[in-house]
User: Which sequence fits this backbone?
């Protein structure tokens, strides 16, 4: 229909349907157009319309408000549908003409209309079911070059919280990528590895366990998409170190996983990780940069801290610095600043068990940095930070990102370039926690994130995230 | 030659003036009005329109409507005719000036099988012209001449390009007009009106032929049934008319209440106006004035019913419908329509009262929705007034 008030345009058109026809938004429809071409549209809005001039006519039609009244003839009505033009078979952009028939599309049409046919580097990303009465299911593929580089990268999944859809979908996508690269390795000249940060619950701590409750119908869908209904492969779990695992994780299978050599505990030793303490101050407002200079002071080789070998000694030394009057050593930093630093640092250290200097590899204890730098193609590393407090979560996340950076920039030892996975996909839930507007601008974690979103694509560091609210800071970057 | 009128003028020996063209119809004016004018009837003691002649007061049908609501509605078909008249031009014959009258005729019958399925059963639409009879003077076979003329104008390039065809050209009497030139226009209108009525009859005949009308499937015709002129034609035509219209009920939205008088010759208008909700009057028998004894009797039963409360409507007659039915058997003609049948028809008409076209049509209180839809459908099929006028 093209009317004075609602003409058809290059972008949209309107049509009527029987009032009882079941269609829904996003269904694809087609219209015959000039030169025997076909214009495809996607339904945007459906409204029901009758010839009733006003609501009052409805009231009068019930014998002036008698709810019991019945009618022999229903009011004449139709559904008025607004559709958005998605394309024309001959690239004709003349608006759809009045009076031409609209019909449902077949599978081929839908693929053409939505641009789903002839996708290069296809990567299964889901399926669309269309039409209520006679459903058509079409598998959907992404061009992987646009998802994990080099053409485009990074993905944020946003939506309503609490439906377990965002994380589940991210897992689906990651699994599809792993499947694709494991099975068709020869087709790809690149390789992938995955680093998943678990920030809540324990769902992500069982990625390699098959789902016994998977229904046959769901298996069929996997089959249609060309995916196996199997769990992730090559999964390794990294739990925060503690004598009793319960205290630091929601997971319950640590011992079993440890037995299979799949689970590890990570620690931060003073000697090797002291330069990371700046990341502990990610959420501390440090406008004057004093915290930063303290960290610089500590990590400098000439400082008194350099000779310390463990966290305990470091703490003792720190205590000296905050003693009043003992400012002769460094006049640039006031005692007050040292105190602030110390207060914050002690707070973190007291609560956390992962700052520990004794590393026992036989017991499966690792430094996260080292572990990550050994990541191989198709590996899935799940790092559990769910039970850590927020500062520590930020700290570990920051460490993970910078470790991957170091790996990709070739600063991580002697690994052969070809051996390093060319793409590392980092997945983190609730990313907004580390990159929302409330995070101070100088937060090292935020800096790392921006770095990843802005330059990660060329390095092969790809960020997948899920968050109810958008990833605000990096929105302008390449998400 | 492109212009239709030039062509007609040349063929008939007239002269066109290219004068002001306009649509002659006032939107609200109804074809049925013209028909009610001659109806005058009396409720006479010996001439009741229904078998129960003891009914003196109005009859409450509220309970009956409840009862019939449980059944399938009696009415399945809805018939309406509409025409639009245009003064297309003035044409001169022998120094006298006549209007050329153009018209669009539409007659539609809609069908309702279930509350949510309402659709077209039959649609007849025509484009016609009416010329003064002067135009055919000197022609031996005027009908053939007009047929040929119709064919020829349809051959003109303009009409062919627009894929529009005229169906017929009529003539109206060129006798001197008594009052003013408007009278010619009215004469022209009458010829077009006659065509519409013919067309309505044809549609009813078609339904009958297909056996679509029967005891549980009636037709409501918008307006009066009193096709007096033709019904009194010849005996055979009357018989066909009577049998075809056995399942047809005429429902008039507007009527002149003054035409109904009681047995003392006084007007029934007040009684109709005071009709309580869902009450009907006793049925009266109507005998057309030009009733031709020789070739047969056409008799009608006529009664009124109120379908909407007077206090909600703007005039005392709003909400009152006039119902009529042709009496088809000897027995009916003698004793009137069976009172049970009158009640059944009335109750079913009352049940058609909702929904209303309030806000869309001034006459909403008297309109029945299926008829309103049929009328809307016909009008949607008309060419726009501007388009029609500019064909000439």
Assistant:
């Amino acid at each position: 229909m093209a009317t004075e008030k609602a003409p058809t345009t290059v972008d949209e058109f309107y049509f009527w349907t029987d009032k009882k026809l079941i269609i829904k938004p996003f269904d694809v429809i087609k219209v015959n157009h000039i030169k025997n071409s076909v214009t495809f549209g996607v339904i945007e809005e459906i409204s029901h319309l009758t010839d009733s001039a006003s609501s009052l006519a409805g009231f009068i039609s019930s014998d002036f408000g008698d709810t019991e009244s019945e009618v022999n003839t229903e009011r004449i009505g139709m559904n008025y549908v607004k559709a958005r033009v998605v394309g024309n078979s001959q690239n004709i952009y003349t608006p759809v003409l009045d009076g031409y028939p609209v019909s449902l599309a077949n599978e081929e049409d839908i693929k053409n209309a939505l641009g789903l046919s002839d996708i290069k580097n296809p990567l299964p990303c889901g399926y669309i079911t269309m039409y209520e009465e006679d459903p058509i299911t079409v598998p959907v593929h992404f061009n992987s070059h646009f998802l994990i580089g080099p053409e485009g990268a990074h993905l944020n999944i946003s939506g309503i919280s609490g439906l377990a859809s965002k994380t589940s979908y991210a897992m689906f996508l990651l699994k599809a990528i792993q499947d694709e690269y494991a099975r068709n390795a020869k087709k790809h000249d690149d390789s992938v590895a995955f680093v998943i940060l678990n920030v809540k619950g324990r769902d992500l701590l069982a990625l390699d366990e098959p789902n016994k409750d998977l229904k046959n119908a769901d298996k069929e869908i996997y089959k249609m998409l060309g995916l196996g209904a199997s769990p992730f492969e090559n999964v390794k779990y990294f739990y925060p170190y503690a004598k009793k695992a319960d205290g630091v994780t929601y997971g319950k299978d640590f011992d079993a996983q440890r037995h299979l050599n799949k689970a590890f505990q990570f620690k931060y030793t003073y000697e090797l990780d002291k330069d990371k303490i700046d990341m502990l101050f990610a959420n501390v407002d440090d406008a004057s940069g004093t915290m930063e200079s303290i960290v610089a002071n500590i990590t400098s080789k000439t400082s008194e801290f350099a000779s310390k070998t463990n966290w305990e000694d470091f703490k003792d030394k720190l205590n000296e610095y905050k003693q009043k009057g003992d400012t002769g050593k460094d006049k640039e930093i006031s005692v007050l600043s040292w105190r602030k630093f110390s207060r914050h640092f002690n707070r973190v250290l007291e609560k956390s068990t992962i700052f520990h200097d004794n590393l026992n590899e036989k017991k499966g204890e690792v430094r996260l940095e080292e572990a990550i730098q050994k990541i191989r193609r198709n590996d899935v590393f799940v790092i559990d930070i769910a039970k850590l407090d927020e500062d520590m979560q930020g700290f570990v996340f920051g460490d993970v990102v910078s470790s991957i950076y170091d790996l990709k920039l070739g600063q991580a030892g002697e690994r052969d370039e070809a051996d390093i996975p060319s793409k590392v996909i980092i997945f983190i839930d609730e990313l907004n926690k580390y990159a929302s507007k409330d995070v101070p601008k100088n937060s090292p974690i935020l800096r790392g994130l921006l770095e990843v979103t802005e330059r990660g694509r060329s390095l092969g560091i790809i960020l997948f995230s899920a968050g109810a609210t958008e990833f605000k800071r990096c929105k302008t970057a390449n998400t | 030659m492109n212009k239709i009128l030039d062509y007609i003028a040349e063929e008939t020996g007239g002269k066109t003036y290219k004068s002001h063209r306009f649509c002659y119809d006032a939107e609200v004016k109804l074809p049925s009005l013209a028909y009610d004018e001659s109806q005058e009837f009396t409720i006479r003691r010996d001439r009741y329109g229904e078998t129960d002649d003891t009914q003196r007061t109005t009859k409450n049908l509220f309970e009956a409507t409840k009862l019939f609501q449980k059944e399938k509605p009696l009415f399945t078909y809805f018939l309406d005719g509409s025409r639009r008249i245009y003064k297309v031009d003035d044409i001169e014959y022998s120094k006298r000036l006549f209007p050329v009258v153009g018209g669009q005729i539409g007659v539609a019958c809609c069908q309702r099988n279930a509350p949510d399925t309402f659709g077209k059963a039959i649609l007849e639409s025509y484009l016609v012209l009416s010329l003064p009879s002067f135009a055919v003077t000197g022609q031996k076979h005027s009908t053939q001449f007009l047929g040929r003329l119709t064919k020829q104008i349809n051959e003109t390039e303009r009409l062919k390009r627009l894929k529009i065809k005229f169906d017929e050209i009529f003539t109206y009497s060129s006798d001197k007009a008594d009052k003013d030139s408007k009278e010619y226009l009215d004469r022209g209108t009458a010829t077009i009106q006659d065509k519409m009525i013919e067309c309505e009859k044809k549609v009813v005949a078609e339904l009958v032929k297909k056996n679509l009308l029967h005891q549980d499937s009636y037709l409501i015709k918008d307006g009066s049934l009193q096709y007096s002129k033709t019904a009194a034609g010849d005996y055979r035509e009357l018989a066909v008319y009577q049998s075809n219209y056995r399942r047809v009920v005429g429902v008039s939205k507007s009527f002149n209440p003054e035409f109904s008088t009681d047995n003392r010759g006084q007007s029934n208008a007040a009684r109709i106006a005071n009709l309580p909700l869902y009450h009907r009057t006793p049925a009266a028998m109507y005998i057309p004035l030009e009733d031709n004894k020789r070739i047969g009797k056409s008799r009608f039963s006529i009664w009124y019913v109120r379908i909407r409360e007077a206090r909600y409507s703007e005039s005392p007659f709003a909400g009152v419908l006039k119902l009529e039915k042709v009496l088809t058997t000897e027995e009916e003609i003698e004793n009137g329509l069976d009172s049970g049948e009158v009640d059944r028809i009335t109750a079913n008409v009352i049940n058609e009262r909702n929904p209303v076209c309030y806000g869309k049509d001034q006459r909403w209180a008297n309109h029945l929705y299926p008829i309103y839809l049929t009328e809307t459908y016909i009008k949607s099929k008309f060419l726009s007034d501007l388009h029609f006028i500019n064909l000439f």
Notes: The mean pLDDT of chain A is 83.
